[in-house]
Amino acid sequence: MGNERWYRWYGASQAIASMLLVNGYWLLFNLPVLLLALGLIFPSSPRQFLFSLIGLIISFPSILLPATFALFGVMRRWLYYQETRQAIGGTFWRLYRENYRRSVAAGLFFGSLALLLLGSFRQIDSFQLPLLAVGYLFLSIILLLWLLYFICDSVHLAAPLRTALIKSFFIIFWAPFQTLMLLGMLSGLALLLVLIHPLLAGLIVGGLGSQCACYSYLRIIQKAQAKAASADE
């Protein structure tokens, strides 16, 4: 009994350590993005603000998305294949290189949609048109879920870019329960990050967020495979 409890604690500590480590790699690869974000939040001059803003726009497809693809790929291997959590650095770097071109293309696509949505939102008065503001918030959530499902689908299957974009969009509405569950988990994670210290939040935000998204996506895939198997019978 004592040994069994010790093994459980040991397994839990290993899982936490692995989560912190893979999140650390994600933060390390995103270090330029973090520095640019600090420059945008605390600019010393209008010129630095503009420089940081342009840098963030460029780094979204070229730095942030490739590192996020690699993070999701590691999480997918842990959840789907139940792989041992070893050689995390080598796996992260390999997935980073394998998905770089695809992640840059996705970053340009989703970044353009986000900029278009943001530019349109700035043209309205949210106080005079509250329903329209709520509509923009809804579209922003849909865009975020679309991006998350697309990343999950890209690291899970080798589908063409256009096919993956279409499929990941319709997954949002094909599996509304799982989508709402994912949205609830992300909302809970966001609340947790608000309540705890920002430095502690940075240690877990990437790992927990990617794990929530990958878990929901894999549940949807398993559900679709079960339906297909029952239909064949």
How would you concisely characterize the structure shown here?
With 233 residues, the protein is mainly α. It has 3 domains: 1-98, no CATH class; 101-173, no CATH class; 175-233. Helices cover 88% and strands 0% of the residues.
Which labels suit this protein?
single chain, 233 residues, mainly alpha, 3 domains, DUF624, transmembrane helix, DUF624 domain-containing protein, membrane
Number of strands: 0
The tally of helices reads 9
Give the low-confidence spans.
none
The main β sheet shows up as: none
Distance between the termini: 45 Å
Structural class by sheet pairing and helices = mainly alpha
Large-scale geometry = globular
What integer value in Å does the Rg equal?
19 Å
What number of domains? 3
Q: What's the order of the H and E elements?
A: HHHHHHHHH
Strand content: under 5%
What percent of the residues sit in helical stretches (DSSP H or I)? over 70%
Average pLDDT number: 84
